[in-house]
Amino acid sequence: MANKQAMSTTQTVNDLEDARSKASFPLDEMSIVYARTQGVRDERRWLVSLLKDDPAFDRRKRHFMSRTERFRSAYDEAMAYMRITRVENEMEKQTRDMLRIYIDSYIPVWLNDSMCIPTVMAQSSTYQLETMGWEANFKAGRWLGCYCQTEMRHGSNLSGLQTTATFDQTTDEFVVHTPDPADAKYWCGGLGKTATHAIVQTKLIIHGKDHGLHPFLIQIRDLKTHKVLPNLEIHDIGPKLGSESMDNGYMRFYHFRTPRMTLLMKNVEVSREGVYTYLNPAAKVLARGTMSLVRVFLVDLAIHNMSRALTLAIRYSNLRRQGSTRNGASLEPRIAEYKSIQLRTLPYLSQVFPLLFASFYLRDLYNHQQEQLKADPFSKDTGDRLAELHAWSSGLKAYATQTSLEACNHCKESTGGIGYHKFAGFSFISSHPSAGVIIEGENWVLYGETCKYLVRSLKQSKSKATAYLQKTSTAASASWALKTAHGIRDERLQNALLEMRAKHLVEMALKRSQKPGPQQGSIDHEDAYNASRAHMQLFLLANFSERMSGPELKSLSAPTREVLFLLRDLFFATCVLTNLGELYPFMSSEQVEWVRELRDDLLPRVGQEAVRLVDAFDFDDWYLDSAIGNSKGNVYEQMYDMMRFDEPLNVEGVGMQDGVVKGWHETLQKVVEGKLGSFSDRKSKL
Ligand SMILES: Cc1cc2nc3c(=O)[nH]c(=O)nc-3n(C[C@H](O)[C@H](O)[C@H](O)COP(=O)(O)OP(=O)(O)OC[C@H]3O[C@@H](n4cnc5c(N)ncnc54)[C@H](O)[C@@H]3O)c2cc1C
């Protein structure tokens, strides 16, 4: 018999409220800093309000669905998403991106909006967009797209992709072909069962000449019957570690014919006679533009996921009491008081704002670059900014997704057994946080791209962020100028130390790449990883300081600024203490000790601000769907209710019949009653 009254919630609710009340800064102001503007913060609240009461987004039932049921329910979610974004509102891309995050499901039309439409809009000619009706068809939802680049046998190495599109001048068509079943397009989201059209990256072959990878827009399913078109073979790729709602697909072409004009022709053109022309000398770089945009979004998503995990773990750690009572206290200590918990949550909390400010920088850089491309596409400066955007979007995507996944796992583990329970709310980790480190460039490969840019910048820096690489003193001979522990919060000194480390690692990467031998000329993977991460951490720190003195944040209240500086210092100390091997050449053991003292002093101070900081991330309880991380703190009551009333095995008429779980009488009851046959105690024959 359920007895809800027996569940005491007062202690946990009071504990959370108490922890909240210890913070020193105004919540509203910090929540605006987190969102960047009040308008964005309020728009996010509005987006959640659109989803909360819509039955298509009933989140709780997802826990109990099979893959097939989950996928089917994702179609209801996708329908509702299309209705909300296109019929009831006319949402811009960035707003739609945010709405999809709050839907919290990798819906089958995700890639339509995140990759397919942006590629079509950026790389198709006006004739294709307007006269051929591409823009109108996507806008009206008559066409639903996906993005097919990866093949089963090739992912990171784009020049290894095998799908070909060979020009047939007699019919004015391209013949698209997959040479081997293992060369089929693979992993593509929405391809398996949903998309009507696909952006397909293929090698372009004209009159025997290979022009390299080019995107086509290819219709893959009949618009009336939705059946796969002839000469194509398409399947869902099957179960993954997460993302059950997405139909990642496999597609094989059998000499499939597509009109010449389905090649995206904004930057290159193939004439009726098969003459290939560059319409823009930067065509190859421009083709990377969509990737950069998606990486900018992935950085935002990584920060969002990390903030979500921190919200659950920090709230729970402030109300969970565990351990021996001390100093005559009547209650056990809150686990947030333990350093072992603080070390798994607060250093990640300290990275949220530096990462956010870096993502603002990256988005501004992207927008600026887009404007420059329109105004002056051929200038040298435009080319330089494109290279910079590629380097930073690669490095920041890799750093943010890696940090976010680490943070999510540490937060989950810090909660103990309950974190393993789906009602705790961490199951999202198996979706975007886990896939984020792989998609749009596997992180190690991306760190390689960033490092190439850094090594080039040793000779000539074309970005403010790499100016330090030009400083005359070689990093190897430098030592950190901090004289006493008092100066340790000076941002110039903090930057100087991280500059030494990054410069030294970039120099070492160059030096080792010049060593005679089979690898001469290429950068060692370990060097690329270390140098790029060191640079990204320096960039986060330097950019943070710059933002804090810039117009957006200069006028914040003193308590808010002080908390942000506490977080910056904890971030700095974390960078140092987790990379001591790289920093020892520049630091004395006394200086290392000062950094450790700083970190140990900061942990409890940041801990006092932590609950209100995660409140400022402004996650709605409906969205968190977590018994342990909801804003009220009534954790045990929530766990009880979810267990008692949501778990089908506990519900009479669903999983149970007359108080007994269904299936028991037909199976194990027979064992209990000895009806299975007599059990033998004979020894094994082996
Ligand atoms: C959830 C999910 C969704 C996806 N959605 C899509 C989609 O919609 N469309 C699409 O086209 N693709 C999609 N992908 C595919 C994704 O883009 C690829 O998985 C990714 O590019 C990595 O390629 P790969 O899997 O072939 O790994 P590989 O390239 O085979 O890499 C395997 C390992 O080798 C390492 N490695 C490879 N090359 C190098 C190198 N040169 N130097 C150093 N290390 C190297 C990598 O770091 C990695 O650890 C998706 C993948 C996932 C997991």
UniProtKB/TrEMBL annotation:
Residues that span the membrane, as ranges: none
PANTHER family, per database record: ELECTRON TRANSPORT OXIDOREDUCTASE, PEROXISOMAL ACYL-COENZYME A OXIDASE 1
Binding site for FAD: T150, G189
Name listed for the protein in its UniProt record: Acyl-coenzyme A oxidase
Segments forming domain Acyl-CoA oxidase C-terminal: 498-671
Primary localization: other
Organism domain of life: Eukaryota
Keywords of this entry: FAD, Fatty acid metabolism, Flavoprotein, Lipid metabolism, Oxidoreductase, Peroxisome
Cellular localisation: Peroxisome
GO cellular component: a single term: peroxisome
Keyword Oxidoreductase: yes
A Pfam cross-reference name: ACOX_C_alpha1
All residue ranges annotated as the Acyl-coenzyme A oxidase N-terminal domain in the record: 28-130
Cofactor dependency: FAD
Gene3D superfamilies per the UniProt record, alphabetical: Acyl-CoA dehydrogenase/oxidase, N-terminal domain, Butyryl-CoA Dehydrogenase, subunit A, domain 2, Butyryl-CoA Dehydrogenase, subunit A, domain 3
Domain Acyl-CoA oxidase C-alpha1: 289-455
GO-annotated molecular function: acyl-CoA oxidase activity; FAD binding; fatty acid binding
